[in-house]
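Shipment paperwork, digital attachment
Item: protein structure file
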Amino acid sequence: MLKLAKEMVEDVEAEMFYPALADAGEDTSLVGQALEVGKAKNDVLFATAAVQALKIEAAQNKAMKLIDPYGDSKANGAEAYLNWTIQADRSNAGKKSCGVLRICNVGLDI
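Attachment content:
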């Protein structure tokens, strides 16, 4: 289920955020800036799902006595990315945010 969520978040970024950012002028417009903040939140969701999916996979492998020679490096990389995305999201504290599934009105508290 988490792998599906991770893939869905990835698809939203590729198929919706990037085109919306291109249309909005990326960070040069208020809507583009709000979309960038929303994308940062999407990145945290993706990274969280990835870390949790890897933890479940590691537990299942351990229970089945399977060895994944890359398991630790995948988990460490995912954890590092999660920490980076959280820091990026925190740096956006107080900024307007919007997602791609609703109209961005940066004049309102979103």
